[in-house]
Structures are given as structure tokens and as C-alpha cells.
Known about the structure:
By secondary structure, the chain is of the alpha/beta class. Helix content is 36%, strand content 14%. It is globular, with a radius of gyration of 19 Å. The structure holds N-carbamoyl-L-aspartate.
Amino acid sequence: MNSSQKAYSPPKFKEDFSNKSLVSISQLDMYSLALLFKKTKELKNTSVLPQFLKGKIVTLLFYEPSSRTRASFDAAVKRLGGDTILVENPLQNSSAAKGETLEDTIRTFATYSDAIVLRHPEKGAAERAAKVSTVPIINAGDGIGEHPTQALLDLYTFGEHVEGKDTEEINGLIVGDLKNGRTVHSFLKGLTISWGKQNTPPKIYLLSPYELRLERWFVHELEREGLTITELTDISEIPYYCDFWYWTRVQKERFSDITEYQKVKHAFVLDKKVLDTYGNPDMIIMHPLPRVGEITEEIDEDPRAVYFRSQIQNGMYVRMTLLSLILG
Ligand code: NCD
């Protein structure tokens, strides 16, 4: 039996991150999340950053385009004293162009580096990589699967917003391409981990074009894990009392027929009128970015819009902390 035939399931974290691959947010429990977020807060408040990653090399292996995720991992490693090997677009620029398998590419970079951050167009690619890798793999997006580190920063950002407030009941709205949006998948799973065991389950409102609804099995799984899910069909149904709005883009690259994309890409646009009509003063507006017209620029000025502010900044700190805990 070779290593790729061995049964593999990604390890549970249980407050111990050392040397573990992060494939899915579901590997973390609420205590591990709390530990990660406590340490992230400490790091955010540190004036001189500890050089936790001195001497460490992290490969950033990106088979799909990325701005924020790649750059924030790069900055996170370097700010903590480590270094990176950046491999962008391996299907053109590496031996993958000659037909090398993902597994062999991983085996190679695992010998050069202490961890590999992987973005790949296929769902399940991070798990395949973790199966053969001798160093931790961090999933930076596997097709329409998951994007666990984005969920970590989204959860941290929301946690910061409600810190010190009475969070007995959480109400949140998630809008856009719920079928293909991997950040949504990880964020929803993350909500079940961090808030799902509360006495009052979080109420999550989902709004998407019918053909981009969340998969049925996934809705049922989230309900089993403690979320109350309500699917909306129109902006006019948004309840005014949400604690957060999480807006996302329609994932153009997952469409085989571009005319189908054109039909739905701006089905739900957040503009000033929508915010003034359905928003409330205490909520925050998140977006994993990039946005492509589904939030108008006038919203950026609104203090409730955190996507170019704390949300993006938290990405670097959460990734710094995660890498320190895994490699530290
Ligand atoms: C997201 C992604 O790649 O899934 N971007 C990101 O990493 N922040 C969201 C998206 O592309 O829509």
C-alpha cells in the first residue's frame, strides 16, 4: 500500500496546533478557536513582534489567483522573522506544467520548507496534499470546498465586534454565491463551532439566487450543528436586527456558461438604499473580497463596513498566530 492509499483524516486540533495541517475549519473545537483568538489579540497589541518564525521557510503554492490571502501569509511569515518560497501559477511556471502530480509537487516543496500554504482549484486538494506531506499543509482555498483561514479572520473580526456585548442571540445575514463560495462554507462551519452550542442558536439568514443556494445536505448539517437557517429570496426580507452582514461575490470562475454568470452576478447589490432601509446602527458589514460590484463604493465610507479595515488587517494577525502555533 502506498501512502496515498492509506486512510487519512485531518487531525483534530484540541488546543494543540503543533505540526498539524489545517484542511478544514471543522478540525478546530471551540477551545482551540478561543486559544487562537486570545493569542491573536495579544499579538495585535504587541508593539515589537516576537520572531517566532526565525529560521522557518513557508512555501506559498498558489494554483489560483490571490491577492490578500497570499500577501497576508507572506507578510505574516516575514514579520515573524521567517521567509517564504512563492510559487504562483504552478500550472505554467513549475513542473506541474510538465504533468507532475500535486502529490509530487507537495513531496518536493515539503523537503525545502517547514510548511506549505496551498491554494488549488479542486475541492479536496488540500486533503490530498496533507495526506502525502511531511510538513503541515494550510488550506488557502480548495476550489468550492473550504477556506479555513478566511473563516478564522471572519470569526475573529465578528468576535471583536461583539466583545463585551450581550451576545445571547446572534443574527447574521450571508449573501451571494453560497453554493460555490468556499469562504461561506468555512465561515458557516466556524459559526457552529464558536457559537452553535449556545442556549440560543445563532439565526443565520441566507440570501442567494436560487441556483446558487447552499447545498441541501449542508443546510441540514448546519442545522444539526446548532444553527437556525432561514433562506430568503429577496432583499426586502432582510430582518433589521442582524449583528452582521456577510456579502460575497458570485464566483465567476466556477461557471461553465458565462451567460449564466451574467444573469446572476448582480442579483443582490448592497448600496446605500439597501443599507439605509434594512441595516441597523450596531451591525458590521463583512466581505472576504474581492468585490466585483456587489457592494457599491459609497458603502466603504460607512464605519460599519469593516472589509477594508479590521477584517483585512485581522487576516494577517490571525495567520501570524496560526503559523506560530503550528510551527512555534
Ligand atoms: C476569497 C476566495 O479566494 O475564496 N478570497 C479570499 O481569499 N479572501 C473570496 C472570493 O474569491 O470571492
